[in-house]
């Protein structure tokens, strides 16, 4: 019988993460430093309890409660220097656990509270990422999130602001935030524009609402990938659409459990996706909010599906095929696993 991969195996293996939110992945000690440096009006009790404030409860009532853990991070992410710092640190943390490629996402519009323009915010994030790339052997890109609970005009502003950075650090656009049924219809024009500009598109769908949202994201919004897509399993039509079009699902096991997207890890549809050969990547979603790492998430999936090294290679290769990067970067990543 082939060896089932465990935590220590994954620490050594090269890993790829495609679904990671900046504001959900901040170091607690750095947040405290920034609170003091920026003179942010926060009680000493909150500073003492910063770890619990930055982490969502393991037993959240819903996605909405999970998202409340982002309130504090956004307070410290309102300056160019802080944005540079935190983007660098997320890439650094990823590198330290042998993540060789990271796509980090954030919503520029959420960082404008103290007067920064979205272009300044995007530029600062790129600087932070490039500083990490210069220091460490890690590749990656930035995904700009448009918020579903904001207007389509706000989404278009984000897309317009990021246009000049395409291919210079920015690789894609996303729709994130609370998920309502039929949200796609609100953003048809915005995503059409993004596609015309050359953005790749990934959409949060099928997490807190139905499989129909996955279908709409692919058919109406031209999604290249789907964030989560857990509820894809609930519709044979949507399941076949995803499979036949080889649309990769960005799976985040711990987060899905916390947000009640799945009842238990043992009932996570990724088990069926794995057996049926659906393309999916393994991700943290939010390193701090979910108190996890890419290594932990790979270990969770390995235990659920009894993953051996050949199984992991297949997931890795599928993930490489779905990254929003050049063929040169893809080849470099393939070489990393074949060393």
UniProtKB/TrEMBL annotation:
<keyword id="KW-0862">Zinc</keyword>
<dbReference type="GO" id="GO:0005829">
    <property type="term" value="C:cytosol"/>
</dbReference>
<dbReference type="InterPro" id="IPR006330">
    <property type="entry name" value="Ado/ade_deaminase"/>
</dbReference>
<dbReference type="GO" id="GO:0043103">
    <property type="term" value="P:hypoxanthine salvage"/>
</dbReference>
<dbReference type="GO" id="GO:0004000">
    <property type="term" value="F:adenosine deaminase activity"/>
</dbReference>
<dbReference type="Pfam" id="PF00962">
    <property type="entry name" value="A_deaminase"/>
</dbReference>
<dbReference type="GO" id="GO:0006154">
    <property type="term" value="P:adenosine catabolic process"/>
</dbReference>
<dbReference type="GO" id="GO:0046872">
    <property type="term" value="F:metal ion binding"/>
</dbReference>
<keyword id="KW-0479">Metal-binding</keyword>
<comment type="similarity">
    <text>Belongs to the metallo-dependent hydrolases superfamily. Adenosine and AMP deaminases family.</text>
</comment>
<dbReference type="GO" id="GO:0046103">
    <property type="term" value="P:inosine biosynthetic process"/>
</dbReference>
<dbReference type="InterPro" id="IPR001365">
    <property type="entry name" value="A_deaminase_dom"/>
</dbReference>
<keyword id="KW-0378">Hydrolase</keyword>
<feature type="domain" description="Adenosine deaminase">
    <location>
        <begin position="14"/>
        <end position="338"/>
    </location>
</feature>
<protein>
    <recommendedName>
        <fullName>adenosine deaminase</fullName>
        <ecNumber>3.5.4.4</ecNumber>
    </recommendedName>
</protein>
<dbReference type="InterPro" id="IPR032466">
    <property type="entry name" value="Metal_Hydrolase"/>
</dbReference>
């Amino acid at each position: 019988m082939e060896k089932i991969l465990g935590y220590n195996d994954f620490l050594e293996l090269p890993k790829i993460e495609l679904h990671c939110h900046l504001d959900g992945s901040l170091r607690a000690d750095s947040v405290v430093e920034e609170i003091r440096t920026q003179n942010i009006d926060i009680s000493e009790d909150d500073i003492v309890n910063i770890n619990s404030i930055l982490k969502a409860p393991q037993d959240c009532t819903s996605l909405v409660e999970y998202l409340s853990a982002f309130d504090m991070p956004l307070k410290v992410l309102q300056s160019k220097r802080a944005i540079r710092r935190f983007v660098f640190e997320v890439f650094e943390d990823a590198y330290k656990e042998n993540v060789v490629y990271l796509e980090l996402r954030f919503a520029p519009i959420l960082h404008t509270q103290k007067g920064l323009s979205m272009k300044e915010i995007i530029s600062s994030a790129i600087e932070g990422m490039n500083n990490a790339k210069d220091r460490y052997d890690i590749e990656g890109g930035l995904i700009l999130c448009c918020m579903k609970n904001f207007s389509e005009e706000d989404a278009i502003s984000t897309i317009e602001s990021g246009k000049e950075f395409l291919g210079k650090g920015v690789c894609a656009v996303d729709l994130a935030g609370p998920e309502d049924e039929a949200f796609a219809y609100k953003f048809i024009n915005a995503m059409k524009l993004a596609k015309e500009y050359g953005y790749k598109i990934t959409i949060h769908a099928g997490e807190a609402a139905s499989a129909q949202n996955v279908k709409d994201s692919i058919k109406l919004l031209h999604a290249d990938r789907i964030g989560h897509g857990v509820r894809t399993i609930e519709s044979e039509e949507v399941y076949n659409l995803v499979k036949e079009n080889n649309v990769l699902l960005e799976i985040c096991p711990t987060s899905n459990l916390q947000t009640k997207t799945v009842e238990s890890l043992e009932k996570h549809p990724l088990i069926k996706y794995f057996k049926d050969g659906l393309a999916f990547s393994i991700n943290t979603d939010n390193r701090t909010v979910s108190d996890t790492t890419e290594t932990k998430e790979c270990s969770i999936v390995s235990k659920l599906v009894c993953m051996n090294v050949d199984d992991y290679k297949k997931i890795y290769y599928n993930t490489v095929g779905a990254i929003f990067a050049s063929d040169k970067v893809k080849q470099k990543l393939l070489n990393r696993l074949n060393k």
